Amino acid sequence: METINIISIMVAVVVVAICCFVAIMTTLLRESSSKTSPYSFSRCQLWLWTLIICPAFVLNWGFKNTNLPQINQTSLILLGITVGIGLTAGIVSATQKTSAKSTTLLKSNSTITKGFWIDILLDDNGQFSIGRLQNLLFTLIYIIVYISLFFKNSMEYPIFDSTAYILMGISSGGYLIGKGMNK
């Protein structure tokens, strides 16, 4: 094994460790800066894709593109979709918080977490959300496919076709529409 391979493995491990450390020790994955606030579905989704694509970027550099790090269109689109979801979800939550003049308390305004899985699967009205479940399942499936193809192809980025992006967009759109309808 070449030195660059070993360095890329070490850097990838450090990147994963830092991502996990920051997620555990901070409020990065929560709706607000309180350690007891609910977990944010969109933040968790963005964190997951970052946790997958950043080490893949380093490993691809160390094993395939040692002269210049590269990233492919699939990885950029996956990150772009999740950044878009995160920003849109944040805007929807902020809008709902400022317009919530009734006695109904939105989950994002709540100060107490009910646990990770419950927080990310309940909508802002505290109801189980099929849109969130669907988006979570497709995210996990695509992560498994991405990782398995990456390692199967010897650290080469997987390439998804446009129908995969359409499916992710529909699933993400369903989540965001459901989030926007919670008033």
Characterization of the model:
The protein is an all-alpha fold. It has one domain. 67% of the residues lie in helices and 0% in strands. The longest helix has 27 residues. The mean pLDDT is 89. Keywords: Membrane, Transmembrane, Transmembrane helix.
**What do the pLDDT scores average to?**
89
Q: What's the total count of β strands?
A: 0
Shape: globular
The parts where pLDDT drops under 50 for at least 5 residues are none
Approximate strand percentage: under 5%
Note the topology:
Layout: H1 3-25, H2 41-63, H3 73-99, H4 116-121, H5 130-152, H6 162-181
Helix pairs in contact: 1-2, 2-3, 2-5, 3-6, 5-6
Descriptive terms for the model:
about 180 residues; mainly alpha; 6 helices; about 65% helix; transmembrane helix
Quick overview of this protein structure:
This protein is an all-alpha fold and 183 residues long.
